[in-house]
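Following the same procedure, backbone shapes were mapped to integers, yielding the entry below.
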Amino acid sequence: MSDIIPFPHLKEKLIRDIKSEMDKGQYEEAYDSFMEYERHYEMSDELALKKCDLLYKMEAFLELREETSILLNKGIKDYDHLIYLHVLSLYELKQYFIAVEIIDQIMDEVVEHKTRLKLLPIKDQAEEKLEHKRKHAQVILQDFENQTMREQIQIMLTLIDDNQFLFKHTVAELLTTQTFHPNVMSIMLEYLRFATFRKELKIQKLEQTITVVPSRLPGIEKSQFKTDIIPEIVDKLEDDMPSILTDAFTVLNTHAILMYPLDIYEIFDKETWINGYVFYFEQMVDHTLEYNDEYDDFMSFIKKLESISIGS
């Protein structure tokens, strides 16, 4: 809502415009009127529901999912209609597992019989889609090692998104018997972590042999490198080289995925990681910077990561 003082009677005019434009099927114009209204005024529950109906008609399912989620948390009236639109948006966004899960959770809360009859077919269709995806995954995993690296990553991400964790033994077998790009291995381990795979696995990554129990891993976002090293490097760069910060952050996140779940302190100590990366980024900015042979081992390791990353 803007601090700008609107013209007199603008509120009433916009409400009339919204109603008229929606009645005429002028959905883009109605959306613009909603945006104008929200710049000046708080949305009433009635208008908020109207906007959700508009988003449905416009097939703007991503925004519909967000709007309905906010309204459901707010607890406004017409719960049945809102939850129907929310589940429908999830289905249209191909988030079938979440759609089924929500329907199962809220069925007892739905008041109207006709709403239940609208939700259940969505559940049936979503379950059918999930079954189709399961069968497709079963086939494609049999040929997983012959897919490209990008295809392998997409397969694993799709399995995670769809909560298809019944293939955990297959993924574990692939991970321990075949050779994959380090990024693929990281996503496979994330899949097994989400699948709560509790058996020990011995894997080779970046010329290191490690034993892990996927269910006990912290996840990429909570890895040592992400929590201990990156924030301190970023702090130093913000003070000394703010212009390179965005590119540096991309490089650091890429390296975090490549190295996961290695114990980084078995490679270098914390000070070497931080100062070494700062030196690495200083060299990127200033090619005339005198080389410091103190970082020979570190720079060799980073160049190895970069060569793997470029080959992705």
